[in-house]
Amino acid sequence: MLDDLVYVRMNSLMMKKRGELEQKNMLPINLDNISVNDFEKSIEDVDKELKRLLDDVDDSIAEDLLFGASASFTESETQPPDFYVETLNLDTMFTPQVVVQGRAQCLGTDQDALLSHISSAPRFPSPSFQAKFERPSPETLQVTLTGAVRTKIDSEGADILVALYENGLLTDCPAGDNRGRVLSNDFVVRKMEKLCNIKDISAKKTVNGTVSFSLWDGFKSNKCGIGVFLQDRSFHTFGCQNLSLPQNL
User: Fold this and answer.
1) Cβ-contact 143, 160 below 8 angstroms
2) How many angstroms separate the CA atoms of 233 and 157, rounded?
3) What gap in Å lies between CA 143 and CA 149, rounded to an integer?
């Protein structure tokens, strides 16, 4: 739905996994041995373990972790590969598939690394924004936010970013391994805007601002929400808040 990058080296487990994947990529592909069921089972195992892990933490932490990862995907659309190499201190050039709070990254298929990064991620208090939603026109959504970031911000400053996401998306797959299947996706970031930049403020100081989003065809407010989060110049995320949109906005 936005977010971060980090100064963390790839852990040895990820390097080992990547090496194995690169070796497999050099082998000829036998289509008769490819099993969609095996792939789906692996994804289901990760989803179940991730849900179990997030059930053990409070909502603010879960939101911070989930949106932190989402933001990284958004950055990957705009940043060149060498940017990741420098920022994440990688020793190989590739774009991470998952970045947790801008401080750790891994391949999305590496279950052990993914769950380890989530469980060890630093905890921050969620901002306490109140939101006012308006539709100045059928094509525009305006969001006014007022509240405290609940984290002291020094002279280096930080941006307050707002992501508009959509749940319940369905993708029909006419070809490929998932041919004939319909895949569902939640927390898909549709738009992201910067609310403001803040510097030298206390955790309790009130901040306010307004952002506007251009909407897409088929927009339905009951399927959408916004994620508000803080991000510094190093793309580290600290503090995230999830807000649902009103029904039939």
Assistant:
1) no
2) 8
3) 17
Report the number of secondary-structure helices (H) and strands (E) in the chain: 5, 11
Judged against a pLDDT cut of 50, whether residue 138 lies above it is answered with yes
Amino acid at 177: D
Would the pTM count as exceeding 0.70? no
End-to-end CA distance of the chain: 20
- Return d(Cα 171, Cα 183) in angstroms, integer: 5
pLDDT above 60 for 180: yes
The reported pLDDT for the residue numbered 203 is: 93
Which of 62-71, 124-133, 225-234 has the weakest average pLDDT?
Answer: 62-71
Q: Which of 125, 139, 237 is nearest to 191 (CA)?
A: 139
Percent helix, strand, coil in the chain (nearest 5)?
30, 30, 40
Question: Which element (helix H / strand E) includes 219?
Answer: none
Mean local confidence (pLDDT), 223-230: 95
The arrangement of strands across the sheet holding 188-198 comes to 188-198, 158-166, 224-231, 237-244
Say what angle helices 36-55 and 111-120 make with each other, to 10 degrees.
10
Query: Position 89: which residue type?
Result: N
CA distances from 213 to 57, 159, 192 (A): 31, 18, 8
Structural domains in the chain, sorted by start:
12-120 (no CATH), 130-244 (2.60.40)
